[in-house]
Amino acid sequence: xxxxxxxxxxxxxxxxxxxxxxxxxxxxxxxxxxxxxxxxxxxxxxxxxxxxxxxxxxxxxxxxxxxxxxxxxxxxxxxxxxxxxxxxxxxxxxxxxxxxxxxxxxxxxxxxxxxxxxxxxxxxxxxxxxxxxxxxxxxxxxxxxxxxxxxxxxxxxxxxxxxxxxxxxxxxxxxxxxxxxxxxxxxxxxxxxxxxxxxxxxxxxxxxxxxxxxxxxxxxxxxxxxxxxxxxxxxxxxxxxxxxxxxxxxxxxxxxxxxxxxxxxxxxxxxxxxxxxxxxxxxxxxxxxxxxxxxxxxxxxxxxxxxxxxxxxxxxxxxxxxxxxxxxxxxxxxxxxxxxxxxxxxxxxxxxxxxxxxxxxxxxxxxxxxxxxxxxxxxxxxxxxxxxxxxxxxxxxxxxxxxxxxxxxxxxxxxxxxxxxxxxxxxxxxxxxxxxxxxxxxxxxxxxxxxxxxxxxxxxxxxxxxxxxxxxxxxxxxxxxxxxxxxxxxxxxxxxxxxxxxxxxxxxxxxxxxxxxxxxxxxxxxxxxxxxxxxxxxxxxxxxxxxxxxxxxxxxxx
Amino acid sequence: xxxxxxxxxxxxxxxxxxxxxxxxxxxxxxxxxxxxxxxxxxxxxxxxxxxxxxxxxxxxxxxxxxxxxxxxxxxxxxxxxxxxxxxxxxxxxxxxxxxxxxxxxxxxxxxxxxxxxxxxxxxxxxxxxxxxxxxxxxxxxxxxxxxxxxxxxxxxxxxxxxxxxxxxxxxxxxxxxxxxxxxxxxxxxxxxxxxxxxxxxxxxxxxxxxxxxxxxxxxxxxxxxxxxxxxxxxxxxxxxxxxxxxxxxxxxxxxxxxxxxxxxxxxxxxxxxxxxxxxxxxxxxxxxxxxxxxxxxxxxxxxxxxxxxxx
Lengths: 558, 311
Prior knowledge:
The complex is a heterodimer of chains A (558) and B (311). Chain A is an alpha+beta fold.
């Protein structure tokens, strides 16, 4: 295949000083990178992060409460769709929230990694050379001594080594500006590099924490299910009432474990404050006998990185339904959801779609359950959360429930549209105590036979949370080191005393963090003064007030 | 677990006494500002750190101020007794609802002020400005958050209550003092900017701006790791109580927001362009977030932290 190359325009001579496109892009990139990793940007991003989290607490969130979101959408038909498009109901999973924290973390990494490299270098290297003018440091002093320069520096070095400083001595450099006080040997000392270590640990732990959190979200899952006493479930998404799972979870590869609820107990104080919820369960692999254990509030089952929680409880009234032909459905029950946690008054529905061959009509009971019922003005209410006098107020319906219509419906209520269309008709209502029977017009008898308790159980799998915990502990350790430690640098230089034959020792110190540095510096110079005087054959100056030679610290021979 | 009614009643009486004592302290501190000798003050060169908090070396003791301090100390003892008797009455830690939480937070704030007043006499003069919000907060707590002494709900019966709530109370109390110091710093800056001729204002009797800023920063530095620990402990507790360590429950969200704001404050204070006034504003916002988290999240929003005990 041959093609004719289009005539190429003669290449224009490049502008003389113009850098290449690559170099310009690099320069632009560097400029933006520097801007992003600047502390000022980081502060702005921190505030953006705080601001971005606010709508997540003020608006209902799908991750917390689906029903609240539905209610909000129903109450605000014009505003809600706009908000929804802005991810206002999924703030913490929204692209803009992710954008803020990812930018913040890029900024953090861009700031911390160069500092990490620098810190590693600094840990290996000797303390930096003394600045030219020690008097300019926040704390500085000059001490005169008859000792020769090297001997005076020996004293300083000893004093600093006792205080666990890293010390390095340097010969007086020719490059120091000429002058009486800046020509001699010098000494640099440093202490407290753990402060910067803590700083880096803190910031890197934040990155680790985010990674652990993300890993847990990707490979984690949780499922919730209501289990009535005597029943159980196995860990599979088909069984759960609701479940959520990370993008990398294979639904066929969940931990094979089954849990049976044997007994559930709710205990109350005298004033009916809930004191404890405990569930006796058996757990084990499918088909196994299972090991018994008890779980409760604040006390989940932990097995191989998975956890099973009791997150709620309620009552499941039991009914025996006897058809006119004598067919009996004994002790069928359905969980009723508590509408008031204080009295445990509950609402729910029992659906019987299949009453046997030849029976076309389906049967349903919908109603209100009171663990301790009291009739007030013809209305059943509950006055106690304990099942002292269980009563139900039920409406019985016969007809078509619409369960196979393809539209999902709540298990806790009947499909209103079937009632409105007349396919499901009310055929009776009654308030029943245990043992009482409602007889329907066609002769069907519905007997309230008692009540079971159910527990809301949650199965959770989060492989990231151990990492998050480790990162959080490291974060705290780093933070404490960063905030509580101080980094001190002390410099000293000797020069000839312009007034006589002795030496002038200049000392300066630079402290980062930890507040007041003047007192500790005064204490250091006092000690130096005393040690210098002790070494001197004849004290050149009277010891300053209170700074007497300390017999506890004898000058060490070297 | 029954409630001892006489101890519960004693606790309520002590609460009123503590409020009364603190009110007396406010009067004493105000008298100090009004009639007390103005502290001798050297002009502070801009940006200078050393010598900035040179105390006014009181040759003559300022009796009003010391009286205020003494009454505050007695008040703090009574205030502590409020919580102790309440805890004894219900036989549990006395921070199971908003009333007890707020009472404890205010106590921490008072104690932090007392410690500051002893350790840094230069900032003792902020007494009126700490105690006045303290009295307001306590009265509001008593009026709007009061809850009868009672047992804990099941979810709170965990040893993490002692760890998580105690540290949250500590952090909050410390941030309370820090926020007040930043407010005073901002006021002081304004009064300084107006010039010395406005020196008759009570603001000129405050500690100098550098000292106030330093107190605000030091207390925030002290409070931040404690708050961090409180959040981490809360996450650990949430993992065993609610099935996940973090779920953006409104309380968690606002604790996170507060943490981020205080992290911002600590960074701002060491960043060129943010030092001074802007950083102080960040600290004030932090305190506002803490208060919002206590009031709004417990009283208005529906979340898992609804232990307020209010109907």
